[in-house]
Request: fold
Amino acid sequence: MERVRNILSASLLYRWLAAAGRWVGAQWERSRVVQGFLNPSARGQARSQASVFAWLWARVHGLLCWLDEKLRLETLLSDSMFTQLWFWCMLPVALGALLPTMVVAALEAVAVCSLLLCFARSRQRALVYSPINKYVMLYCVVYAAGTLASVTPRESLPIGLLSVFFTAFALVPVNSVDSRVGLERMVKGMVLGGVLVSLYGIYQYVFRTGYQSAAWVDSSMFSGIEFRVSSTLGNPNMLGQYLVLMIPLGGACLLNARGKKQRVFWLGCCGVLCACMLLTFSRGAWLALLFAGAAFVILLKPQLMALAPVALVALYFVLPDTIVQRFTSIGNLADNSTSYRVSIWLGSLRMLKDYWLCGVGPGDAAFNTVYPTYSYDAIATPHSHNLLLQITADAGIVALVLFCVILFWYVRQLCAAAHKERDGKGRLLQVGFLSGVAGFMVQAMTDYSFYNYRVMFLFWAYLALGMVAARWSQLKKEGDA
Reply:
């Protein structure tokens, strides 16, 4: 390797290309667009504190403190486990993919109650500012309105309320994690939860257990694929969507590891996650993971992208033929799965021309009440197989705009933080959170990622922890008061 580096360094062409790359990079970084993106205005916090949500919260906080004083909760719950906010926040985040949906909702409810209890015990405690908080709250309001305006209100109501509840959880980790150790603990808990999910998926593949659907594979094109793992999430594409979030965090844990034993442990964890990802045979998830990996490398060490072609060629010769064949079929309209999705997208767009303002309401019942009128080739489907299209179908164009604004601010804050961060551990976590969401949104173009409510819950928790990571330099260090 050292010899190759010396040869490249002595090459006149290489030096010219490197100099040109550095010049282009410097010009790009100094441009007004990039500087404006990497240096967001500080006026957002002042505007947020003057918003109607801040006014409402001040009243709620005052009521909570009044109840605490009247009921003497300070004395009653002074040493209670319910005051251990980090623990109750950790449980649903770490175990979200392992437990049934309603158990996750119950754990989230306990975490919310624990947070409210902490606010009730202190009038001085204030909500932690995050640029996406107000947009998350607005998104919840709009989604709730879309639920009430559904074409099937009774069927949409429980689905809409659960979706709003899981989305609003994004406000909990932001106000629960205030130290670097706490954030690292949450990240490691999420990754280890992902490892357990992956181990179960590998077990399914080895012993051929678990539900299989004929619709998951076009047997005429992929006769070599006999089994796709879904682990605890019931669908291989949903499992792949989940793993796209976990693998970049696992990579961050590996690179942050200190000592040989820790490195071996986290390398093993990453290996298990990646092995399970392969066994999903989800082409969208594989493509999303490649995109997430490219984003991780570009944000961390752009120079390493020069090795990307070599790595892709090596993978072609190392991976089994079934995996190579499955991946290279992306975009092939002869595949039933691909043509099926294209027809659904076209039908969904036709439907949204008439229902763009408020959508049709969340849930399969609402979608299938309206969609068959607009479908192509009489294709039946429970959703639009695209996250952005489905959000519009659920709650209208305003919900879609708010979701895109949330993503914009998330990416902007983490890019700005990673650009300025000088602590290597914090920067790795910021890059991990950023690349995970980038990959997630790539797969979201071919799947309705929130079809599994636990994946939806973990996505919003992931965004919240990413915003905590963006404040790494402001978080308490170990030993701080």
